[in-house]
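Regression test attached.
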Amino acid sequence: NAGVTQTPKFQVLKTGQSMTLQCAQDMNHNSMYWYRQDPGMGLRLIYYSASEGTTDKGEVPNGYNVSRLNKREFSLRLESAAPSQTSVYFCASRGTANTEAFFGQGTRLTVV
Amino acid sequence: DAKTTQPPSMDCAEGRAANLPCNHSTISGNEYVYWYRQIHSQGPQYIIHGLKNNETNEMASLIITEDRKSSTLILPHATLRDTAVYYCIVNRSGGSNYKLTFGKGTLLTVNP
C-alpha cells in the first residue's frame, strides 16, 4: 500500500529549465493537491483538483501549471524555473471534502 | 474556511501531556476542525478531526469548546518523537469545498 508517491525526491534545475513533478495515489481518492513549503514556513497551496478533469488555483499558482491526468495522477509543471521556486513540494490526496488528507514525502527542488 | 490562530511554539516535558490550543472564532456550523503534524521535513500526517463532540483516537484527544470557537489537541504522554509542527485547520465539509489550506502551525518541542 504505497499511498501517495512523488517523483523525483530531489532535483536541481538551472534557471529557465522546465520540469514536471509527478504525483500518484493508489487510494482511489477524488481530490489531489500540490503545496510548496519554504524554510521555516507552513505549507502553501499551489493548485488543487477536486475531481478528475477539474483543477483550481490555490494561494500561490503563478509560475506553475498542473494536469490531472487521470484519477490517480496529478502533475505539477514548472515551465521556466526561477530561484524563487526553490522549495519542498508536497502532493496530497483525500477521498472527500470531509475526510483526512494523505501526503507524499516531498520533492526537494533547488533552482540555481 | 475559517481562519485559525495557534501559538508559534510550545515546550513540553517528556511523559507529560501536551496541550496545543487553537483559536477558530469565525468557525461556522458545518466546518470541521482538523489536526495534522509534520515531523522534521516529512509530509504532514493526519492526527484527528471533529465537528463539535470531543474525539479520541490512538494518537490524541481533541477537545472542542461548546461554542466551537476554540479547540485543544491533547497528546496524553508526549515522547521525543512527538516533536513536530502541529497544524490546526478548519475545513467546511461537503458541497464543492475541496480547498485545503494550512497556516504556520505550532512547533512543539518535547524535552527529555
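Expected vs. actual: identical. Chain B touches chain A at residues 32, 34, 36, 41-46, 49, 85, 87, 91-105 (CB under 8 Å).
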